[in-house]
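Help!! Second protein's tokens look totally different from the first
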Amino acid sequence: MANFYKDTPALKFHLEHPLMRRITELKERNFRDKDVYDFAPVDHEDAIDSYDKVLETIGEICGDILAANAESVDHEGPTVENGRVTYAEGTKKGLDAMVQAGFMGVAMPRRLGGLNFPIVPYMMAADMVSRGDACFENVWGLQDCAETLYEFGSPDQHERYIPRVCAGETMSMDLTEPDAGSDLQRVMLKATWSEADQCWYLNGVKRFITNGDADIHLVLARSEEGTTDGRGLSMFIYDKRNGGVNVRRIENKLGIKGSPTCELTFKNAKAELCGERRLGLIKYVMALMNGARLGIAAQSTGISECAWREAMDYSASRAQFGKTIENFPAVYDILSVMKAKLDASRAVLYETSRFVDVYKTLNDIQRERQLTAEERAEQKKYSRLADSLTPIAKGMTSEYANQNTYDCIQIHGGSGFMKEYTCERIYRDARITSIYEGTTQLQVVAAIRYVTNGFYLTQLRDYEAQPHSEQMQPLVSRLSALTDKYAEAVEFVTSKGNQEYLDFMARRLYEMAGTLLMAHLLCVDATRSAELFEKSAKVYVNYISAEIEKHYSFIMNFDPADVEMYKK
């Protein structure tokens, strides 16, 4: 029996990070639930043991059910008839297994039927699920929408909707439209208040909606007549039980074929306001998207894990010129860099998740009582850290997922181009990760202020100052010199006072900052466990040294006036 948790010691390593003690204390409110629920943990060690056992069970489901059915799901896909979606048989089996095991509403409070888990173990589950079948993550993982409902919905909405999610009902977030993709300010789905019925009605079309025939939807719609920008948008809850929404079609996609990506028609669909009017895009969707972006980072990491393992297995069995191809430098070079990118992805994914856990839980505690001055400072610190790392996590891990699946096919050679090999499917599945929930280019837009205001530089120096093992010290010294070059490049670009030139160079500065941050995180991890991460840390620092030099050379030798040349 395959178990994706037991065979991946890096997951348990991150589960036992020192900051997890603070996270469990906050999440469990100093373990007060032990007096109310038999299964609530009594202390930190008990909480970690609980996460560990649940992750082990999820790891078994991922290996024995999701991965085993992923190929058939890819071929069969979902279908639509009379406006309703039917999942592929393999997807149904996976959902049944997760529901029966009680793994819906993972991060929701126990009083609402959830497991009350922090984000970290939830992202670990998403990581494993995506390794098994990236499509399934787009169905099961959208329980993440319940976090936004919990954060901004009313107590009454909590009681009516969240227990249903915890019991196994699915969710979707209905944001994009035919003329409003990345530019959500252009959303025109109309929300009209009915005085007679004392409810809202939604009319219009949504497109590219993942899991679009879900039971409970969070819908972005225009509630303010006469508006054309984001200030006229509100968030609504639509319950499929009320009718009024039909699936016009399921998109025929390159990859993630098991995930129903739908075009929806809303015709007098009864809905209720979530939160306050006019804050749909400005506040609620931003929170929703940040959670989704972390989920895509987990999905990307799981795909990278699958790609690396497929490449390793094939290279160990495929013989050419009298020996297996894993022994050729051209091959083991690729394999080692794949593993380094995987470990770097996991490092930034779980660092970001820990930051999100601290500030989100403090936000929740603030609803119960006033925070102390120390807690407010902690909340502010981790909120900013999470906000700065989320676009790095989403952008870099999704790009690495694409690179690792590309390299996985390359290791397979001609066989990798054939449908019977897993690498062909995951290559197609990976492609969307750097597009949906905000393209890599939009992650650059989200991150660039942390480049120009010096926040990333401060973070790099802080990681540099952390204690490191003797083996890591030379790598940290190399990273320090590379950070000097990054700082010089940032100063060179910003000193020109040319916004278009800054935008043109933003992707390069983002990648310099991202790779340096991920390298530092790997060095910190390797200090804690040389056995797991020392090799990857060394390989990754070698790899990014060339990347930093490439970007540095481009920036320092580029005449800002040449931006015009790229337009023509």
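Here's the second one for comparison:
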Amino acid sequence: MKHLFTTTLIFGSMILCSSLSVNASTELKMVKANEFTGATKAQQGTDLGKGYTGKGVVIAIIDDGFDVDHPAFWDAEGKSRVKAYVNMDSRVFTENLHNAIKADARHLDLHGTHVAGIAAGASPNVLGQYRDYAGVLHDNVQIPFAGVAPDAEIVFVYVDKAYYQSAMAAVKNYADGRPVVFNISAGENKGWHDGLDYRALTNYLKDDGAIVCVAAGNEGQQNLAVSVEAGAGETVTKVFPLPLNSGAAQLYMMSNINAPISAELVAFNKNTKEEIYSIELTDNLKLGTYGSTGGGTGGSSGDALGGEAWEKVFAAPTSNTNGWVRNISGSSTECYKYEMSFNYVPKDPATVVGIRVKVSDGEKVMATLFPVNKDKPVAFPEPEIEGWIASSPDGSITTLSTVPGVISVGACSSADAHPMLENESLLSHSTKAGEIWPMTSYGSSMSNDEKLPHVCAPGVDIISALNYWGDKNTLEYSSASIAGIQRFEYTWGPMTGTSMATPYVAGTIALWLEANPNLTIADIKDLIAETSTKKEGDPRWGAGIINPYEGLRKILGLSSVNEVAEHEPMINVTDNGIEVITDGKTVAVELYDLSGRLVASKASLTNEAAISTEALTGGVYVLRINDGANSISRKIVTK
């Protein structure tokens, strides 16, 4: 399992910590992220009638590196809320979890414990020391770094991605009708962005409707994708520049329709712009001479492409795996795909190589790169010939995020610095509160053009539980500690990544399911679109920042989305637009798609505002009407 993981900060040590004892009345400062999103108000029950803490909901953490004994997972009586463990064989353990988890090789990782603490960690009813966000050191006090749903039941799941669905079924069976949220803070951008790399999971979610949160990825600053698309009735031809001598890199090229991609490998002299080589990409085409003296056509048997044409341009390959093209299409897919591996070098430094793609009538073709050797990153080069397509991080999203029905999560910051127990009281970071974490991956699904991620949550230097059985030096970068059998046995510390943001959303959904256990994945996506704190200007935001409190108010019928005026405004949907008429108030009217992206806006001049929908695809949108003090949101179906 590849973690999309974390940036963990390590510093010097030498801390004194108090002994383990109980003090339930210790006054606490709340976690910064929970204050930032509104989770604190949700937990406290501000104007809600009661507090919501995830009680009665199961959160399943699919990960590795679990510390079942960490105090962050204790209930009020000091008993662990980790009630079950599911192993690689999808076997469910409900007793002796400590030994069952340690039997798996990856139990030493810090990742799963930290993720679980964000989703469902509690402030343990024992004493230790911590430093707060003002830099003040507190000793002999209760640790305040709790997660979003501190009363939820936790299930640890350690399973390979090929068996997600069987593990989920095992958890659902164990939950016996109780609502379940799954968290997967793992993934990679390898493969095709239509979700079908995870066909079994896709089918399971379609049938079961499971609620699954996944990490968007941490490659949002890497130019890993190129794409070209045509409008209805249009034909567009463009060239994707290829990296040369890239070793074991793989290129994945996909179309949004199940028909062969019209593509050629081409070589140009970048100085003269002369085309000096081209070959159509076909199924099982091998690129290279491989000792052949005759020309091949790249037929189904994997013929070698040799002869004078290739040899004039490229140096001889070093192995028979030097280059090949393979079609991954057919009845099992919903779009057309090519997988390509290459490691060729032009003889002339002036030679540039690319893939010329022709698309027609609404087709979109995208190519992404994935380095087989993680220590040798690869990216598309900048075009050296005018008109070639420039690459972008738009397509860096994890393939797991493109599975229909999951919730993809990006990361933002909720504080300007994080506290540490070490001599320095605070450590600043470059992503300030309210800003997107720039490494958040983004893109869209090739199967339905859904924009991803769906939403963002705090993921920068989030303080959570650290696995005692993992890194024994966790104290060096910890923000809180409790002494146990050994000094500094249990610690809390910061990690960064979409891995941290994802359990924040999973914990939020647990609060919502406590309020209404019958919510479906469609209901939850609507809540995210309608109640998240809107952010604009960057596609990484999705619907904005998750807002646990506003989501609860919406569920409970207490939404702060109040009436714009004394009377409900009139909303009229026409063939080419939306008209909003109020009783004299000046309002701002905004239209969002269901991923939370602003697609149109208008301010009224007196009591009327109109938005054109001519450029939009017909479907369901969210109309927000705001008079500066209050707002309402309504679902609208455009024609």
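Reply: Different proteins will give different token patterns, so don't panic. Residues 498-515 form the longest helix (18 residues).
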